[in-house]
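Researcher: Before we compare anything, I want clean individual predictions. No alignment, no superposition, just each chain on its own. First chain goes here; please echo the sequence and then give the structure tokens.
Model: Echoing the first chain and its structure:
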Amino acid sequence: MTKYIVRRLLGAIPVLFGLSIVLFAFIHLIPGDPATAILGQHATAQRIAEMREYLGLDDPLPVQYVDYLAGLLQGDFGRSFINNQPVLGEFLRRFPATVELTIAAMIFAVGVGIPLGRFAARYAQRWPDGAVTVLSLLGISIPVFVLGLTLQYIFAVQLKVLPASSRIDARLQLDLQTNFVLIDAWLHGGWTFDEKVDAFVDGVRHLVLPAIALGSIPLAIITRITRASVIEVANEDYVRTARAKGLTERRIDGRHIMRNAWLPVVTVIGLQVGGLLAGAVITETVFAWNGVGRWIVDAIGNRDYFVVQSTILIFALIFLMVNLIVDIAYAFLNPRIRYA
């Protein structure tokens, strides 16, 4: 197992190197100029030329890339053109907000998707299965921004039961230490227990709508994969043998069906976790969620090269690590799987 993990980690190096080249070239092909974004449209040509020289944008692209790569090898992901802050530090400050939203979305997707998939498989080719199929198709088909705006209109504007945006009520004046709102609510030193509970509940209420919007597509995918996997395993010979022996359906379902149906489900969950971390851009923008996704949107508009390319590289590394964890989990879910 150790050799397999080391081999996978070493294999990630050329992947990240190739991605860095593609990202660097692609981002510099995007129309626009960081110097103009910083100084404004009314800046003189001389001021723009001076700013480009200061930012190092006058150097040939191969030279810029080598300088960027040398910084990466030393742990330097560059600095933002806009505020001159280190990209890695700003990423780490905003990343907890994205992680918090992703975890909530996956709890919603897994907590609803797996039971729905098992329910559809139990009534395969009957009307409950058809109803679940229609719901899953709707979940995949509706764009996240449309669903997000719809949820805001219904629950925030019309019903007024949930907040429309942000992470917590600004009137609470929460001191963000870890930048995980739900954790910081308990770490706040100046509040009583009841005030901590109120802040925690307020953080959960702000989390509900963006989590549902972000988790809608993974929910649909997990539902469909769970249904297909359970139906496939339920038709295996060993399941028929277990029924012939007189085992209860509950024992058959838990011991024989689900234990063997978990592998494709775990695979898709792992892929969705990596995808959600990198794909929360639209959700964070719609709900004014101050995470990495919204930061990237602003960076693209400002042509902030280092922020965009370094953040995508970090997300690529996270995605590779999630895939590795999923592969390792296979050996625990199915003892027959061994990695040489």
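Researcher: Okay. Second chain, same rules.
Model: Second chain and its structure:
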Amino acid sequence: MTMKGKINWRRAAAIAVLACGAGLLIFGCENKEHAPAAQNIKLACIIIDEDQFFHLVLFGMRDAAQQAGVELLEANSDNKPDKEIELVNTYVVRKVAAILISPLSAKGSVAALKLAYDQGIKILTYNTALDADFAAAHIECSPTYLGQQTGKAAREYIERNLGGKAKIAICAFKTAVPEQSNARTDGFKSEVGKLPGVEIVAEQDAWLPESAVKKVGDMLTAHPEVNIVYAANEGGTIGAVLAVKNAGKAGRITVFGTDCSEQLLQMLQADDNVLQAITSQRPVEIGRLAVERALKVIKGEPVEKETFLPGILLSRADLEGVKKFAAQFKEWTGQGTR
């Protein structure tokens, strides 16, 4: 997820208008009165990253599409606005019935998707929402609640082990997905902020492990009083754990995070006692629901406009629960015994 400078969404929107206009001239626009048979339905999924969250979303989507006997086209925007627009335009040309997308921006992604919607394509969002009302449905784990769940676990840890006092550093991802990052970090802060002895002393952006190792390391150097690190996503959490270990402060600094991966589950069970708790989303369920809702919308059936799923707290305080979840995780990722 490299971000080079500010995103010029006006330029991107103009490109979308020109590209979709060309698509209309060449291919025209269908307005079908009847829903197509299942074997003729094409759904398009756009993810934004190759991390395990999106792999598991795809697992759920593929499973639901296979069960329904429909075709699922898959693509990755790589967190690049121009590529997102290009993919949407491609799916307009291919006349898919619905686009299932995790938009890169609540506002910036609207133009291209609105043009697709205007041509009769159903739009469903997951993970991140649009600041528009034409999406038929939206599904996600509430980012605020994800942060609150981890924040509650951190607050209980601080009360139990640190006498209710802590100096906290935060590793966010506002540069990548500002709305989601802010919701998660605000949720975390709302819980730990219930303790008057807690202070947030540093906050930096880093969502990939490599950059998070450096950014968290820099924060620990600049603020040696830090004894808790919160990271708002998978890559940031991995990097935070590694930074604490690299600094030789395992046992003095603990980490709390959001999201889940095989590596994080291993870190949660490691003897170093650094990672204390993470809140996992429900990506497989999100993927399945997105496909199921899309098919209902295509058939003209009513669906819930918004669905917010709770996260799953995985804590070192409940290692048996972590082990059970890890076994299920291996099944989802194709590593378990079937």
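Researcher: What stands out in the second chain?
Model: The radius of gyration is 21 Å. Additionally, The first strand starts at residue 42 and ends at 47.
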